[in-house]
Amino acid sequence: MAKFSPEEKVKAVKKYLDGSDGVKRLARSIKVHPGVLQQWIKQYKAVGEKAFEKRYTRYSLQYKLDVFNYNDTKDQESGQIELNYDTRNNVITNNQIYASNSRIFISNNFNKNTGNKLDYNQYYGEFNQNYGLWQWKRKTYKGFSSYQAGMNQEGNEQHSVFSKLSPSFKQILK
């Protein structure tokens, strides 16, 4: 597969967004898998052209919080935590993670990420745990038990828990 510069990725995404071409046709014309192009589009929509900057770009804490807030309040159906790129050696522990209307807690559609540690997280939803969605390494887990069992194979989420959010707690948040 050919490497694409950030400029080439932005050009392809903008061509799709202006309605000039559909995903499959455009992907075929630039010789990239349609799934890759769809990921570029998703990344561009989430953070703009910064999505295609070199791999080790450091973002400010405020920028990261803005992305979390955007995911949380705009119901983007990308999850409360969306991992972009093939992430390595991240630590996601001791968090309280609430899923909005999308019911998606974590979205990670990359296979190659390694060394990520997830544990001691508290997942909340206004629904039974069987209705929550977790996406990890291109696999969607329906329900917390299924997700936890799958993640335990990597040594993750052994101590995390799911709690149904009480209606009275939601009123406190407003």
Explain how this protein is built.
The chain is of the alpha/beta class and 174 residues long. It is 36% helix and 19% strand. It has helices spanning 6-17, 23-30, 34-47, 61-73, 144-152, 167-173, and strands at residues 81-83, 91-93, 96-98, 104-108, 117-119, 122-125, 133-136, 139-142, 161-164. The protein has a four-stranded mixed beta sheet, with helices on one face. A three-stranded parallel beta sheet has the order 3-6-9, with no helix packed on it. A hairpin with a 2-residue loop joins strand 7 (133-136) and strand 8. The longest helix has 14 residues, at 34-47. 22% of the residues are buried. The model has no long low-confidence stretch (mean pLDDT 81). Pfam families: HTH_Tnp_1 (PF01527). GO terms for molecular function: DNA binding; transposase activity. It comes from Bacillus mycoides. InterPro entries: Homeodomain-like_sf, Transposase_8.
Task: Summarize the topology.
Elements: H1 6-17, H2 23-30, H3 34-47, H4 61-73, E1 81-83, E2 91-93, E3 96-98, E4 104-108, E5 117-119, E6 122-125, E7 133-136, E8 139-142, H5 144-152, E9 161-164, H6 167-173
Parallel strand pairs: 1-4, 2-5, 3-6, 4-7, 6-9
Antiparallel strand pairs: 7-8
Keywords: Plasmid
Protein name: Transposase
InterPro entries: Homeodomain-like_sf, Transposase_8
